[in-house]
Amino acid sequence: MYKNILIYIDQERPRSWKHVLPEAVFIARQHKANLNVMSVVPDFGMTVVEQFFPEDADEKLNRAVMKGLKTFIKERLPGDIPIRPIVAEGSVREAILMISEKVQADLIILPPKIRRSPLAELGATSAHVIRHAKCSVLLVRPPREKSGDASQS
User: Fold this and answer.
1) Which residues of the chain carry a pLDDT beneath 70?
2) DSSP bridge partners of 8
3) CA atoms of 22 and 130, how far apart (whole Å)
């Protein structure tokens, strides 16, 4: 039985959530679980990066992404399950692993590919999370496209 489910979304890339959201909602309802919905922003803490941005750029970005995430949740997820928005900093793969431990996730739900990687069956981020997660990971593949009728040759 799942109690805490974690999903990662990139609001700008529907491929990261289009098929994951319905599955996550279904499982959360069935198990009466909490749904943790996370987005990730770049880490401005690196010296080479932070010198190019104003001092409070990371705080402003975090607030903007959190606001967008809350709007995303309100528009796309039902109100009958407990949902927690989370914004993390750093690399997506490491942030997913860190947050999964922090929220004591017992299930992480991801698409097979988070970023554009048309040649790979399994994206680098999803593969990394599968290898290193301390809980179950469910990959939700998009439905296969229907090919033409085989009887018409």
Assistant:
1) 44-55, 114-121, 145-153
2) 38
3) 21
Instruction: For domain 4-139, say whether CATH 3.20.20.70 is its number.
Output: no
CA count, 13 A, side-chain hemisphere, 134 = 10
Q: DSSP code of 16?
A: G
Sheet hosting strand 4-8, strand order edge to edge = 83-89, 34-41, 4-8, 107-110, 136-139
For residue 53, the model assigns a pLDDT of: 63
Of the candidates 5, 11, 10, 78, the residue with the CA atom closest to the CA atom of residue 35: 5
Distance CA 121, CA 56 (A): 39
Q: Which of 110, 74, 118 is nearest to 92 (CA)?
A: 110
* The pLDDT value given to residue 152: 47
Domain locations in the chain?
Answer: 4-139
| Tokens read off for 12 | 């700008």
